[in-house]
Records
---
Amino acid sequence: MRESSEDMFLSQDYPGPSSQASQASVSSRRTRSSTIKDSQIMSSQDMETQKEMQLISSIIRYLFMADRNKLPIQKSHIIKHILDGNSKVFRSIIESVNIQLSQVFGYSLVEIEGNKYILVNEIENDLPHLTFNDNHKLVLLYLVLVHIFMYGESCKEEILWDFLQNLGIITDDNFQHEYFGDIKQLVTVDFVNQRYLEKVIKNKNDPMDFEFTWGSRAKNELTYRSALQFVADIYDCPIKKWKLQYKTVQDEEENARE
């Protein structure tokens, strides 16, 4: 007996209306579940990004506040005060901080001595980037740095005192100046602590046998060319007149290009 076309049609394994509705419902639930999971993942990522940006902003605020006294900023202090002691994230977060400092503020965070940092102005102009709240200190510092460079990039303490004495800034028995203040304190303590100057010990057995050189902050905020140009402007001469110093300028600029 042959089946009718209707029987043949009904005998095929096709889903009926109720089955199709059930499948649609399951598919809809799966889609909603997938959407919720994707939303949760995106929300979690957004929260992590927001948390990282808050950390970056907090570190930048801390750096600008800590830089006011021009003392190097301790890595351990950043970890303690901003990162709640979590040193594992320091390296990655500080790279992001440096990018923001450069792109937004025009500053660079320079690492010195392995575990300390200084802020350096990246914006190029014709003026040295030495920065002080007290302009009196800035003038004295600039004179000292220029003299050290012109003397051969380093000089003994007594040579520096002779220079300042010839300028009438100090006398044999008086390091106080009405405009600059305590010269000896500024040069031997403040400028050294701020890394504008460095004391280089020449004799390990004699801590008093040392010379002053430019410190890491001075090297980042000032150039040999600007120091030599300052002298050349005073004497109204081309900088090439000082052959030894000019050669030092060229060497510095060549090293910077490499």
---
Amino acid sequence: DLVVKALKPIWTDKPETASRLRGRIESILDYATTQGWRQGDNPARWKGFLENVLPAKGRIARVAHHPALKWRDLPQFMVELAQQEGVAARALAFTILTASRSGETIGATWSEIDLAAKIWTIPEWRLKKRQGDHRVPLTDPVLAILATMRAAAGTPAPAAFVFPGGKPGTGLSNMAMLILLRRMGRDDITTHGFRSTFRDWAAEATDYRHEVVEAALSHTVSDKVVAAYRRTDFFDRRRDLMVDWARYALASVESEGSAS
């Protein structure tokens, strides 16, 4: 198979590059199919095709700058997190379910939250990479967290932090979520590592295109030609992705809730 031949030489040595290439090939072949230029299944699709001949990304050794929880362990972790009290616990759950950076969560203000539209708009100046505002679709579990925080705040001002710190007018400490993890006995993982957990789950357990996942993570497009022609942030597909992510992450929490 030509796709396998193209990917195999770099699949283990350069997993991120190989994953992006696979996603690019999949998109091109999907486009060719819609134009009537080819027929049949997409040989670059991971689920049901390449997963049978190439090792999953999660099994490939790589440099881990941010120790991450294995995606299969996430549902049980979320059960343990749900048992924790305090603002830091709610902030960590929010961070995980939105696949956002901890700094983006800590700096979030109510002016960025549109509860009616179910959108969190992070302004460009707060993003790691300056690429325009980043819209985050808010799922029902995330809205429930926001409802809890809003109820605790009473009637917060638009400029008020969604996750307030211990002193009036301040946001949560940038160490609060890490301290929470340590209190839970999880010195082996970091808050930022949950973005890798999300990425690995999307790659290994779903059919979502690479570009959609990268857009959910607010990653820039490294290919300048592709970036120049992209006219979408895949928002509707990202909303579906985040719904599936929340459903997976909270499966055990909901099971325990229905059983009690």
